[in-house]
Design goal:
heterodimer; A: 265 residues; mainly alpha; MetI-like fold; 2 domains; 12 helices; globular; B: 299 residues; two-stranded antiparallel sheet; 13 helices; 2 strands; 73% helix; 3% strand
Chain lengths: 265, 299
């Protein structure tokens, strides 16, 4: 490398490093704020405390929203996984002329802006007279995460030899038994990864949920409402907790993803 | 690719022909094609239909009309907001392309575990809570925010500036930070697709690293990178919460205009028509992106 090239790369690292800093600045600043009190819009560095974390536990609205988010997430992930498994297995066991159609539809909510999906579901729910509630939120989340779960299941299913399924059928197992004892065990790590990822997406979902939420809210909705009505330091504490939990989930997902890559034949 | 025909043969070799399927199979087929249709396509269709409905005195009459679209195309303010938002999303996408390319290129040059770690670090902000990120951006950009304190402490400005909050610049900065990670991954993948043999060949033939970058790496990775940036533009176009949080009244965007029709203004048919305008724009962008990506793969 010439000196000029080395200099260019060094300069790029400076820009890259700065960009990384900017990417992480929001999270770091919030976490920092959560340990200190504010005085006249300035951080009071002398007062390190966990007070805001303590107050969180008393905020029953917040805890209810957290509980709702977890329930919605689990329901959405389980439903989306069942639908994806059924669809993917159906597509695997034969030449299906409708495959392109189904996959196109499933991927639509993933590609289109969330606001479009949100309005579509809102209009549809009103047409069939379904009141906005956590049920409509869950349906919205299923629609959104279906693409991710289906994709990951299909990728793993495609690496599966058809001969395994044929052998199982030849040896007298019916379709259901073949699926349960031959196919499903091999999908375990793919399902774990997709579930973690899908749950993280659902837990964070805001732009679609906004159109579908009724009286009971999920955590991002609650957070949004709290931020609109006024910034209290508790928000920083809560946000830090949420950040750590999602990062934990992401780390778990990344680990299981690596595992499933390494296990691939 | 392995063939799937044999499984189908095993499936149908016994029993009646395919079209005379058993009731069970009909039910399965209905479910397989029906569930995605009912859950995704039908709502999308009803939303499209809604944009052609007439609303009078806050009541949807059920008559078909083009008035909602006419209202958009004839109103200067909505058109102004629309083009302003397209411009905003374009700037955000350009920033994502530029900075995303630099980061992806640096990571791509690395080897071993540092490479994996930095790639993971650049994707990690994707799973940070979205509302949290906007909130944090507001506490950074705000009048009493981190950026102003920093600029004042370093002596660049004397008094807190209002340049960074509650205007279009604030929305642009916040979106650029929030949506940049969406750009990094596609750009990195575009770089990964360049065959190693081409780089070795260029080096063997005497090209210097700078020449290799300009004549091999950049032309081969740019189309995929632009496709990634267009994806960022699509996301930025539809965002309606970031502008609400950091944009104030000056940072009004098209997404907010749509949102307000479903909230306070309560004119769903008009809101649906605005959303269809957004949808058409987005489809055009996605079409452009896939065209560029396909051309890159063939060329």
């Amino acid at each position: 490398m010439t000196r000029l090239e080395r200099l260019t790369i060094a300069l790029l690292w400076v820009v890259g490093g700065f960009t990384f800093m900017v990417l992480y600045a929001p999270a770091l600043i919030v976490i920092l704020f959560s340990f200190f009190a504010m005085k006249n819009h300035q951080i009071d560095w002398s007062n390190f405390s966990l007070e805001w974390y303590g107050r969180l536990a008393d905020n029953s609205q917040l805890l209810a929203a957290l509980y709702n988010s977890i329930v919605v997430g689990i329901c959405a992930v389980v439903s989306a996984t069942i639908i994806s498994l059924a669809l993917a297995y159906y597509m695997k066991t034969g030449v299906r002329r409708g495959r392109a159609y189904v996959e196109f539809i499933i991927f639509l909510p993933f590609v289109l802006p969330a606001i479009i999906t949100g309005i579509s579901l809102l209009v549809a729910f009103r047409e069939i007279g379904l009141e906005r509630s956590l049920i409509t939120v869950t349906i919205g989340h299923i629609v959104l995460i279906l693409a991710v779960v289906y994709r990951m299941v299909t990728i793993r299913l495609d690496t599966l030899e058809n001969s395994q399924i044929e052998a199982s059928l030849d040896l007298g197992a019916n379709g259901l038994e073949t699926f349960l004892y031959v196919v499903l065990p091999q999908l375990r790590s793919a399902l774990l990864t997709s579930s973690l990822l899908a749950f993280a997406l659902s837990f964070d979902e805001t732009l679609v949920t906004f159109f579908l939420v009724g009286g009971e809210t999920t955590l991002p909705m609650r957070l949004w409402a709290m931020m609109r009505t006024g910034f209290t330091p508790e928000i920083n504490a809560l946000v830090s907790v949420v950040l750590c939990v999602t990062l934990l989930f992401a780390a778990l997902g990344a680990m299981s993803l690596r595992e499933s890559i390494e296990r691939k034949p | 690719m392995m063939t799937v025909v044999s499984a189908e043969l095993a499936d149908t070799s016994v029993g009646p022909p395919r079209w005379l399927a058993s009731p069970g199979k009909i039910v399965v087929r209905l479910l397989v094609y029906g569930v995605p249709t009912v859950m995704i396509l039908a709502p999308l269709m009803s939303f499209l239909a809604y944009s052609f409905l007439e609303q009078k005195d806050n009541i949807v009459t059920g008559h078909l009309t083009l008035a909602n679209y006419a209202a958009f195309f004839q109103s200067g303010s909505y058109l102004y907001v629309f083009f302003g938002t397209v411009k905003l999303a374009f700037v955000v996408a350009t920033v994502a392309l530029f900075l995303g390319y630099i980061i992806s290129y640096l990571i791509w040059r690395l080897e071993g575990s540092t490479r994996y770690l930095l790639l993971l670090l650049s994707a990690l902000p994707l799973v940070m809570n979205y509302v949290v990120k906007i909130y944090a951006m507001r506490s950074i950009l705000g009048f009493n925010g981190f950026l102003n304190s920093f600029l004042m402490a370093s002596g660049i400005i004397n008094a807190p500036s209002k340049l960074f909050i509650f205007n279009q610049t604030a929305v642009m900065l916040a979106m650029a930070v929030i949506y940049l990670p969406f750009g990094i991954l596609p750009i990195f993948l575009a770089l990964e697709r360049i065959p190693q043999s081409l780089l070795s060949a260029a080096a063997d033939l005497g090209a210097k690293p700078g020449q290799i970058f300009l004549t091999v790496i950049l032309p081969l990775s740019l189309p995929g990178s632009i496709a990634g940036a267009l994806f960022v533009m699509v996301i930025a176009l539809g965002d309606y919460l970031t502008p609400q949080m950091v944009g104030g009244s000056e940072g009004f965007t098209f997404g907010r205009a749509i949102w307000s029709q479903f909230g306070m203004a309560f004119n769903w048919p008009f809101g649906a028509a605005l959303a269809v305008v957004l949808l058409v724009t987005v489809i055009a962008l996605i079409g452009l992106a896939s065209l560029i990506a396909r051309k890159a793969r063939l060329g």
